[in-house]
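Task: sequence in, structure out. Protein: 3'-kinase.
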Amino acid sequence: MDAPAFPTRWNVNAPELIAETFSSRIWKVFRADGSPAIVKALKPFDDVKDELRGEHFLAWRRGEGAVRLLGCDGHCMLLEYAGETLLSQVLAEQGDSAATAIAAEVMARLFSPSDHPAPPDLQPLRARFSSLFNKAKTDRDDGEKSLYVEAAATAERLLADPVDVLPLHGDLHHDNIMHGPRGWLAIDPKGVLGDPGFDAANMFYNPLDRDDLCRDPRRIAHMAEIFATTLGQTPAAILDHAIAYGCLSASWHHEDRNAIEESRELSIATAIRTVRLSL
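Result:
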């Protein structure tokens, strides 16, 4: 595939396509000093605003806990090279506890104070949860006492009384945390605004190929303890965020008519709920 014409001012060369997703093409390039960098070229798709909010989040974070935004041009971003080691590799080689500890360290850095004003276009968590609220309303109207209904009530409670309201990554998981020259960094944020507990939630549902791990009550309880300590919250609150997030993700899959992934998310949310009820 031919590389797009990158801005001359970036002075990058030798582009190599290293990944392609539904939303973007990812190119590894080299800068004038020989150092590697990444170009993320967005495709035209429905949720491009998500990606642009993520770009603004990275610009605001200025490299603290996340990759640096080195340049932007329309729907193209020039990004710091984050390395080649994914957190999921640490989990596979050193175990889940080691991976969870690293994720907690990255979270702590992501939520460290900034002297700069937050981007104005970050998506409020209430708007992020709209699909869950819509699905819960449908279920209620149909007389169903589903997990969606319960999770929507939990989300409403969390939104009404946030521990803090901060810029969030919005999609933190084992394949969005990488190790490179500057250590462990988060990549590919969505740019959300709300309670930091939301950013711990997706970790419970990952890695995607480890349902045995994601449903393990000991792992669920351990993650809740670690992230609660990191974020200054209770394990119960972290688990509430995890349940709400999982049902939100399931509602997205429901909209996409992806019954297999919807069922997976709900089964993990149910396992998390069981641990939550034991506290």
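The chain has eleven helices and eleven strands.
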